[in-house]
Amino acid sequence: MTKDYRSLAAELVSELKKQGAEAADVYIVSTNGFNTTVRLGKIERLQQSISKGLGLRVIKNGAMANTFTTDFQDRAVKDLARETMQIVQVSNADKYNGLAPKELLGSYQGKLMLFDESIAKLTPEKKIEMARLAEETGMKVDKRIKNANGTSWNDSRSQVTLANSDGFTGQYQMTQASLSVSLLAEDEDGTKQTDGHYTFGRYLNTLATPQAIGEEAGRRVVRKLGGRKVKSAVVPVVLDPRVASFMLGDVFGAASGGSIYRRTSYLVDKVCQQIASPMITIVDDATMADGVASRPFDAEGVRSSSVVVVEKGVLKQYVCDAYAARRLNLKPTGNAARSYQGNPNVGSTNLYIENGETSPADIIKSVKSGLYLDRVGGQGMNSTTGDFSMGANGRWIENGELTHAVQEITVAGNVLKVLSNVKAIGNDLNFRLGTTASPTLLIGEMTIGGE
Length: 451
Hints:
Layout: H1 6-18, E1 23-39, E2 42-60, E3 63-69, H2 74-89, H3 117-121, H4 124-139, E4 145-164, E5 169-186, E6 192-201, H5 210-222, E7 233-239, H6 241-255, H7 257-261, E8 282-285, E9 306-311, E10 314-315, H8 322-328, E11 336-337, E12 345-346, E13 351-353, H9 360-365, E14 369-377, E15 387-398, E16 401-414, H10 415-420, E17 422-425, E18 436-437, E19 441-449
Parallel strand pairs: 7-14, 13-18
Antiparallel strand pairs: 1-2, 1-4, 2-3, 4-5, 5-6, 7-19, 8-9, 8-13, 9-10, 11-12, 14-15, 15-16, 16-19, 17-19
C-alpha cells in the first residue's frame, strides 16, 4: 500500500510560508519498480526497487531556490525547509519566477485510466516467463537469427503528490510496463545485423503479446540482412511511425516556450502561420482516458487539457510552463514536467499526429520508386533551423512493393519542408511504442545520400 503524502506536502508548504516564503510548492514522487533482462533463456538481471524523493521550491523577492531529499523523517524535511529559505536569500532575482496562475490550478475530472491492478499483481515469475517467451519466439522466426542481445521486462507503480501555497493539493497513482526484444542475425557471408521491437503502456491488456513482440523483432532483424546502399537521389519517402514520431518530438521541442523565448527555434514568430501540410494536426492530450502519459494535473498543478499545437498545418500556439508563459506573455498550457530533483520545464504528454485514412500498405503501393525509412540515427538535427542530416536504414520500394534492405545512407532536409510535403497519412496511429506517436507518413520527396 502506497503511503498518502498529501498531508506531508501541505504541512511543508505551511512551514515554508511561516519561514517567510512568498510562494512555495512541494513535489513528491514514490516509485516501486521491477526490471529483468533475459538472454538466451537465462536471467542476466533481476532488480526490484523502491524509491521516493521530495523536492521543495521556494520563491521570495523574485528569487527561487530548489532543494530535494530522499529522507522523509520529520527532522530531515524541516532542516531542508530551513536550508531552502537560506538559499533563496542569496539567489538571483528573476521577475518571471513564480507559481502557475491560481485560476488554472485544479484536477481534470474526467475518467483517466492511470493504474492497472493486473500489472501490480504480476509475479516476478510471470514477468520472467513473458521475457523468455518473447525471446524464444523471436529466435525461431528464422534460422539466420543466431543470437540475442537481451530481452527486458520493466514495470513501475508510481505516485505523484503536489501541494503549493495557493491552496492546491493533488495526488495520483499510475502504472507503466514495457517489454523489449533485441536480436542478432547473421548472413551466409558473415554479415551481422541487430534489430528488435518493443511494446509500452499503462495497462497489461494494451501491450502487444510476447509472441507478437518476438515475431516482429525477428522479422525486423532478418529483413536487414542483405542490405546495401542505393544511389544518391531525391525520391518519395515513407516514414515508419518510429521515424515520424522522432520528427514530431522535434517539432514539439521547437514549439516549447523555452526554445521560443531563447529564440533558438525554427518556430519563432510562426504562430498562426502555415508550417506544415494542411493534412497535419498535432495534439498533446493529457486527458486521453487510457493515454500512456495522461494525468489529472501537470507538475505545477495546472488542470490537464487537450492542447492543439498544429491544426491543419497552422501553428496554433506555443506549449508553456508557468515560467516560459510569463516570459512570452502567454498562459501556461498544462505542459509543466519535473522530477523531484529539479524545477519545472516544458514536457509533452500523449503527443501525436492525428490519424489519417490510408492504410500503410496502400501508402507503400502508391510509391513507384522510393524509400521506406524505418530508422535514423546520429546527432544531425539542428534545433534552431530545423535542418537535418542523419544516418538511415530502411527498405527500397519498387513498383509499390518493399524489396531489399537499404543501409549506410543518409537522409537530409528540413523538418518543416518535410512536414509541408506530406502527401498521405496512415490509419495506424497507436501508442504502443511510447508517449509520442505518429501514423505512417508519405513524404513527396526527400534527399537520400548514398553511392
